[in-house]
Specification:
With 242 residues, this protein is α+β, with helices and mostly antiparallel strands. It is built from 8 helices and 10 strands.
Length: 242
């Protein structure tokens, strides 16, 4: 993924937190509760919970909110069943989009997502046609102010990182999913705080959106999808202007 795409995504996420803090905390709380219900409240034994707790910390979600979500997931009497789904979508300008969801009503969610797509230039794609354009990777983003380049590069490569990239904004560390946590722990052990760290879907080929109208069309659809209550994450191969 290009430098413009990754830093635009970081800035978009941070901006969304400021604008829709309550909504984002609510969605993170739901994902924490689902993770606990599926595999227990011990992050050491529950990889899904570990990942969502990382994202919650990056969003500065208060510990009280996290504790309540964990207790809700561990509570007795909850009978709601959630299904994890991934939708493969083509958006405006041929942009490929993967949508990850957790829903307690597949039909309702499918109807609502299709409506969003129809009204905003998107469409459900043939199975496999979009997912083949992405690869599952650990991605850690660090600003230039947060770390010395040589120290960070040596640390991550020794810990098992696949790639280390730099640009004017900072550093991008890529790992396979199996080495993500070891590399992240090595970074944090040096007192370095990433601005983003997650196992995510990264595009193998991006679609540049050079003009403002194209970027606006795609961004509008991505924002609407991310705002849907059942959507956990949205990944695209759009190369948004920095």
């Amino acid at each position: 993924m290009s430098g413009h795409s990754r830093w635009a995504k970081v800035k978009h996420f941070k901006g969304a937190i400021d604008a829709k803090r309550g909504k984002i905390f609510s969605k993170l709380g739901k994902e924490i509760a689902i993770a606990v219900k599926l595999a227990g409240s011990d992050p050491v034994m529950n990889p899904r919970l570990r990942m969502v707790l990382l994202k919650s910390r990056a969003a500065n979600m208060p510990n009280d909110n996290i504790d309540r979500a964990i207790k809700r997931g561990a509570g007795a009497g909850e009978t709601i069943h959630y299904d994890d789904l991934t939708y493969e979508v083509y958006g405006p300008r041929g942009v490929a989009i993967l949508i990850e969801l957790s829903t307690d009503n597949r039909n309702r969610t499918a109807s609502e997502i299709r409506s969003l797509l129809t009204k905003n230039g998107g469409a459900i794609a043939t199975a496999g046609s979009v997912s083949r354009l992405f690869q599952r990777k650990g991605q850690i983003i660090v600003t230039r102010e947060a770390a010395d380049e040589d120290l960070l590069m040596e640390t991550v490569l020794d810990a098992g990182a696949e790639d280390f990239k730099t640009d004017e904004h900072g550093y991008e560390v890529l790992t396979d999913s199996a080495h993500f946590e070891a590399v992240l722990k090595a970074i944090e052990a040096k007192g370095i705080k990433p601005v983003a760290a997650e196992v995510t879907w990264l595009p193998t080929l991006t679609v540049p959106l050079a003009d403002a109208k194209a970027a606006e069309e795609v961004t509008r659809l991505l924002d609407l999808l991310e705002d849907h209550d059942d959507v956990k994450d949205v990944h695209s191969n759009a190369e948004l202007p920095g």
